[in-house]
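[job 4471] stage=fold_predict status=RUNNING
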Amino acid sequence: MEYLGRALGHVVLNGKCRLMAANQRHQDESVKTMFPRIRRALVVDDAKPMRELIRIALGSFHCRDVIEVEDGTLAFGAANIVSLEDGDLTDGSTDIVFLDWMMPMLDGIACTKLIRSGGLDGFNADVPIVMVTARTEDECERTALDAGVTVFVRKPVSLRSLSAGIAEALTKTPQKVLV
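[job 4471] inference complete, writing structure tokens
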């Protein structure tokens, strides 16, 4: 329970999230077209407010389909959900994955290793993975990057740091830590 309390303390909640989302929508449209379009994102975090904040950040990248789960064990089945909202998404491919490190059952490092191993339906082994975590120790960063995380984002986060993490992951530049 202590972890959940800490995690919630790192997230901007309720009304502030909505206000930040409105401000995010008014950003320069040219920035939105600089990166590849995200059709589907998978967000795996046991804290619902964190999943909501990531969803808001993904909106500025025109993400059309965000699948949210609270545990790593649910991530692999969720990646194969087919969205028929507008008829365009016909497969279970995932364009970007967000993982928390500390989750019950299957943590973010184990999920990363499974994705990078290849052969999982709904995942290209090279899919960008953004780890958003309260683990701030340098050795944790190295462990995550060594496991295959594309971008390591430390909590507390803002829409700006999440958007920067998404942009970094989409351009597949060298692995970087954002604070």
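[job 4471] summary: The beta strands are 40-44, 65-69, 96-99, 129-133, 151-154, 176-178.
[job 4471] exit 0
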